[in-house]
Write a structure and sequence with these properties.
Elements: E1 8-9, E2 12-13, E3 18-24, E4 33-41, H1 44-54, E5 58-60, E6 64-67, E7 72-80, H2 85-90, E8 95-104, E9 107-113, E10 123-133, E11 139-145, E12 150-155, E13 160-171
Antiparallel strand pairs: 1-2, 3-4, 4-13, 5-10, 6-7, 7-8, 8-13, 9-12, 10-11, 11-12
Length: about 180
């Protein structure tokens, strides 16, 4: 039996959000230490933390999948590392992106609006993630993208996992929302 909202899932205890791993990035051009995120979200407040870390992440359409049999929606995205953006702006205008995995559990249905599905190489920019409760603990998680696109996940409860995959690189591009 699966219990939602901070109880037990399967055979193991659910952990709350955590940010403990420290790794050296072995990517050319990046010599600093950086914390690799490992976050779990079990309610709308936790989801807000995940959303803040994923603001301005870019995702290829082909890197998203709905696994209906497993009731999971998964994606691999390129997270913009806002942690050093201001310091980088003062230095040499180079910023960091990190390859990140994201998994939504207990997904009952997925609906896409204004998200091009025909080109797997098309890239979309994630602005925020929101949760709207319907009948607690169930609700709708909405991923909102630049340009008006959205993906709505109908869920039994909030169970989201974010894991940095350790692949990071420099970019000269700072996200800008003035044109959106």
């Amino acid at each position: 039996m699966t219990w939602c909202v901070g109880k037990k899932f399967g055979n193991g205890e659910v952990e709350r959000s955590q940010d403990k791993l420290l790794h050296t990035i072995a990517t050319p051009g990046i010599t600093a230490f950086m914390k690799l995120l490992k976050l779990n979200a079990l309610d709308s407040d936790d989801l807000g933390v995940v959303s803040a870390h994923l603001q301005d992440a870019v995702i290829k359409i082909g890197d998203m999948r709905y696994l209906a049999e497993d009731r999971q929606f998964i994606m691999v995205l390129n997270r913009f590392y806002w942690g050093d953006a201001l310091a980088a702006e003062r230095r040499k205008n180079t910023y960091t992106r990190v390859r990140t995995g994201l998994q939504f559990g207990h997904v009952l249905n997925v609906k896409k609006s204004k998200v091009m599905q025909t080109n797997p190489d098309a890239v979309i920019d994630l602005l925020t993630i929101e949760f709207t409760p319907i009948q607690a603990p169930s609700g709708v998680i909405t991923l909102i993208f630049a340009g008006g696109g959205a993906i709505r996940l109908e869920v039994e409860c909030v169970e989201v996992r974010l894991n940095d995959l350790g692949l990071a690189w420099e970019t000269g591009n700072l996200p800008d929302h003035e044109e959106q």
